[in-house]
Amino acid sequence: MAGPAFRAAAVRVRTPATSANLGPGFDALGLSLGLYDDVVVRVAESGLHIDIAGEGADSLPRDEAHLLVRSLRTTFDLLGGQPRGLELVCANRIPHARGLGSSAAAICAGIVAARAVTIGGAERLDDAAMLELATELEGHPDNVAACLLGGFTLAWMDAGAARAIRMDPADSIVPVVFVPSRPVSTETARGLLPRTVPHVDAAANAGRAALLVEAMTRRPELLLAATEDRLHQEYRAPAMPESVALMQRLRADGIAAVVSGAGPTVLALVEDSAADKVARLAGEGWAANRLALDAGGTSVLPLA
Ligand SMILES: Nc1ncnc2c1ncn2[C@@H]1O[C@H](COP(=O)(O)OP(=O)(O)O)[C@@H](O)[C@H]1O
Ligand SMILES: N[C@@H](CCOP(=O)(O)O)C(=O)O
Fold this sequence. Notes:
By secondary structure, the chain is α+β, with helices and mostly antiparallel strands. About 35% of the residues lie in helices and about 30% in strands. It starts with 10 loop residues before the first strand and ends with a strand.
């Protein structure tokens, strides 16, 4: 059987940072943030050429080991075949191994780009299949759901397949991120989690996660109570003691702060009027930034 045909024109894909868990919603809740990686993908006559600017420019591989390439390759296989050559130009802004979903962004960008450069790609790989594939590659559905769909997402596994719904977060919520200079990989942070947790902790998280959906969408005044977690943040403290200490200090001041994803970034969800002041609270050693909420998720954009 003949493989698929490819578009000659390049495609440009923009993919957002994400903050997973938001406290109690471990492996389920995600928020899409207005901080983006851009990649231009072009099908070429032969070879693999990767140009990288920004995050990872000095350290990422320029071969088949590159995560975006692995995601493109897996998606092309599903779509029926590989192009002869590929050229990628990556503008990376999402910091790596900080709990802001850089790996999810690379995976989602690869899937969306492969679908966009393949003629008939959208008919062969629908949105639900993209979420399933991204979850398989990432290992958990929370970041990739928010990254693909934008907004505030709730993801779950149904008989081994990822599913998600997208909600609009209340537009008064301003995310402020505190990014430390030292990375902690998601693999390391997941390795610190216990195999079982006390029933009382699981029950507490179930209530807070349910409350968090209401707080994120309609009643942000409940965010401090709704972001309380007992399932993962404290267990991860040995790999990121400063992050957990900063989160606790902010929470003691009434600020809804959590460990972002698997850490070590700390995320605070605040009102617009408080955001600049909160961003100044961390002090030395943290890159503090207020971000916008992202509504659109991973998108194919016109070439600049
Ligand atoms: N834009 C990118 N291009 C290629 N690889 C990437 C990119 N972003 C992230 N990665 C890979 O993912 C790793 C970080 O993944 P992970 O530990 O899950 O942290 P994060 O919380 O940032 O997703 C990086 O060290 C790198 O190997
Ligand atoms: N639920 C996952 C989220 C990991 O997010 P990342 O941004 O750190 O990759 C976890 O907590 O392990």
